[in-house]
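Narrative of accomplishments. A recurring question from our advisory board has been how the design workflow behaves on a single, concrete structure rather than in aggregate. To address it, we present the structure tokens for one chain from the evaluation set, followed by the sequence designed for it. No filtering or post-editing was applied between the two.
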């Protein structure tokens, strides 16, 4: 049939038409494939080159020991370079292989950390003594076991527990990685210890002290008192569980003997032994005494004699004693405040003339050695001063403040020939308002006196008292001594700090300003005083006043003068050389001082100013005083040389002609109760005892 043939021809034509196109397509595909393969090859080649490079610069793995800290990334480098972990690893790893990522010169790299355990376990054998009743496991026979993993312990050679003897056990140690070690250990199986040690003088030990375990039928051989008092090693027979064995009792003496030195006062040619110089020898073993320094029988001075005590343990003690060869027998007297006379030491000695080389007042208990001259010959006398009389105790204060503890001496006084100490029998409860308190006075002789009284403690509600705060004059543009003469006292706290408020003062401008002083005690009680400070122009500079003062100080004061002598000499100078005229500038004390000292004239304020200028160059404490009340003014000073405040007035007219120097209130009031009247609330308390020269 032609139809199929025709169709075949059509297919052939189509194929003929398609053939060039397919050929062209295959050619193009091959080119693309070749290009792709070229690129891929280049990539693979590059990757291979890169991998080869990285492989050459890094190690594929690193092995570390179990328990070691994870190493730095640099350990994976084969040479120089920079490496770091991409992600921080654990500080350490258990046994195994761990893939870690590091960065080498900026490129990531996978590496492996291998953790292995290659070190066998280690330990020391603990030599052990056990009873026949005990069978300790291997771990009890080792010490200082070290390994990074769990260790299994087994006996490779076990001791014969329960049978008396000496054995060498071998303990096998194996860790989880199979590393093993064998440790030999000495094991002693015993009924009793080889020995026990006791100090000489101790009680004899019983069988239990020797036995290693709790045996019911333990028996012990005899231990005598002589054995316990004599150092040595003694064999002791021990029986338990029907077995008899030998142990040893070691008696040691490690404690040195003791003894008390004895003062020996004997007549010449008296025979003495080392034992004469020591008493109350105490030791658990026998003690021998020998001289280290032999006495000198020709000496008539006090000499030191040293003797040595030695016990059976070889322990030594040196005792130093005193020896005096003399014909004067020691005497004993009661403590007193009057001098001792030579005849009191020579009741049994014939003599014509005797004297001490120095005065001796027996007011201190104890043994005293006094150098004497008896008919031209020097001797030593021994005087034992005793104090057998108890002190006299007087309670002087029974009321005080809550929460303000005081020493016992604050509440009482004690009188005695010898030094005396006051104390409470028990410390008072300072928070309790009323309680019975016992005071005890003890003198140097140990004698006691007790006194019980009711102590009342009150709340502290009173404010401190501020002294010295008064109206004053000061100089413009000069330093202002705001705190001069200022103090505060509190009945409970004593001296209290004072603060000053000068915020309203302009010291560079003429005028009168308010100044406030404040003092607060521990209880919070507060006192305040406000005064006026008037600022005036200075007519005389400090330098000018200093020049005038120095000229007088050089004339009046002498080397070696006490403070009291200096103050009195300067007082006398002003009293004699500044004559009274009723005229002064009371707003300018410095110019008045210069005026009085240079012209020799002025009133009471001038005399006060002159003395103030001079005394400010000494160490005396000074306070200015103005008469309180009256129709006229009067000025003087309070002076403290360390023994209290006293009145001092250098004016030589009126009542002052009586020479008011270091007077108490009673002394001034005896002359006039009005001339030196003052506001006592502004000043500290005045001394009540008359002033004694030389202070």
């Amino acid at each position: 049939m032609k139809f199929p043939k025709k169709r075949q021809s059509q297919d052939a034509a189509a194929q003929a038409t398609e053939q060039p196109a397919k050929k062209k397509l295959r050619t193009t595909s091959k080119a693309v494939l070749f290009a792709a393969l070229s690129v891929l090859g280049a990539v693979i080649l590059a990757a291979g080159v890169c991998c080869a490079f990285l492989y050459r610069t890094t190690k594929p793995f690193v092995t570390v020991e179990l328990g070691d800290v994870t190493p730095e990334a640099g350990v994976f480098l084969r040479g120089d370079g920079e490496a770091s972990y991409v992600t921080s690893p654990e500080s350490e790893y258990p046994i195994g292989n761990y893939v870690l990522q590091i960065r080498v010169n900026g490129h990531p790299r996978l590496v492996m950390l291998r953790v292995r355990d290659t070190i066998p376990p280690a330990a020391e054998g603990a030599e052990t003594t056990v009873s026949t009743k005990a069978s300790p496991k291997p771990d009890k026979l080792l010490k200082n076991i070290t390994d990074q993993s769990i260790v299994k312990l087994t006996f490779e050679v076990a001791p014969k527990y329960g049978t008396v003897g000496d054995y060498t056990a071998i303990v096998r140690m194996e860790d989880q990685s199979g590393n093993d070690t064998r440790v030999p250990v000495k094991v002693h199986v015993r009924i009793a210890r080889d020995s026990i040690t006791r100090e000489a003088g101790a009680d004899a030990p019983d069988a239990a002290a020797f036995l290693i375990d709790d045996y019911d039928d333990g028996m012990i051989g005899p231990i005598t008192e002589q054995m316990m008092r004599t150092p040595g090693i003694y064999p002791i027979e021990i029986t338990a569980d029907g077995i008899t064995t030998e142990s040893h009792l070691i008696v040691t003496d490690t404690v040195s003997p003791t003894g008390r030195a004895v003062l020996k006062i004997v007549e010449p040619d008296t025979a003495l032994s080392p034992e004469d110089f020591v008493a109350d020898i105490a030791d658990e073993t026998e003690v021998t005494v020998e001289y280290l320094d032999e006495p000198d029988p020709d000496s008539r001075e006090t000499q030191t004699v040293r003797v040595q005590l030695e016990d059976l343990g070889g322990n030594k003690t040196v005792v130093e004693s005193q020896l005096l060869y003399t014909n004067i027998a020691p005497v004993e007297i009661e403590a007193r405040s009057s001098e001792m006379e030579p005849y009191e030491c020579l009741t049994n000695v014939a003599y014509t003339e005797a004297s001490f080389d120095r005065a001796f007042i027996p007011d201190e208990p104890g043994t005293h050695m006094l150098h004497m001259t008896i008919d031209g010959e020097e001797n030593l006398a021994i005087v034992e001063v005793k104090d057998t009389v108890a002190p006299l105790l007087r309670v002087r204060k029974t009321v005080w403040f809550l929460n303000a503890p005081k020493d016992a001496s604050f509440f009482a006084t004690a009188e005695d020939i010898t030094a005396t100490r006051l104390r409470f029998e028990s410390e008072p409860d300072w928070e309790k308002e009323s309680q019975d308190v016992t005071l005890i006075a003890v003198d140097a002789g140990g004698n006691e006196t007790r006194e019980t009284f009711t102590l009342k403690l009150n709340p502290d509600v009173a404010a401190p008292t501020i002294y010295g705060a008064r109206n004053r004059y000061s100089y413009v543009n000069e330093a202002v001594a705001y705190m001069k003469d200022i103090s505060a006292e509190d009945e409970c706290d004593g001296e209290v700090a004072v603060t000053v408020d000068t915020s309203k003062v302009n010291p560079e401008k003429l005028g009168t300003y308010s100044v406030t002083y404040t003092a607060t005690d521990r209880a919070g009680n507060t006192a305040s005083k406000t005064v006026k400070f008037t600022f005036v122009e200075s007519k005389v500079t400090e330098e000018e006043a200093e020049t005038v003062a120095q000229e007088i100080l050089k004339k009046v004061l002498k080397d070696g003068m006490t403070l009291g002598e200096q103050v009195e000499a300067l007082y006398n100078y002003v009293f004699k050389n500044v004559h009274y005229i009723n005229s002064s500038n009371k707003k300018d004390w410095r110019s008045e001082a210069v005026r009085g000292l240079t012209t020799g004239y002025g009133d009471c304020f001038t005399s006060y100013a002159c003395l103030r200028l001079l005394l400010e160059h000494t160490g005396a404490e000074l306070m200015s005083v103005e008469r309180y009340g009256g129709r006229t003014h009067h000025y003087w000073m309070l002076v403290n040389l360390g023994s209290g405040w006293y009145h001092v007035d250098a004016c030589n007219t009126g009542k002052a002609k009586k020479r008011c120097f270091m007077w108490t209130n009673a002394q001034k009031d005896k002359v006039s109760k009005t001339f030196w009247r003052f506001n006592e609330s502004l000043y500290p308390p005045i001394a009540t005892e008359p002033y004694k020269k030389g202070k």
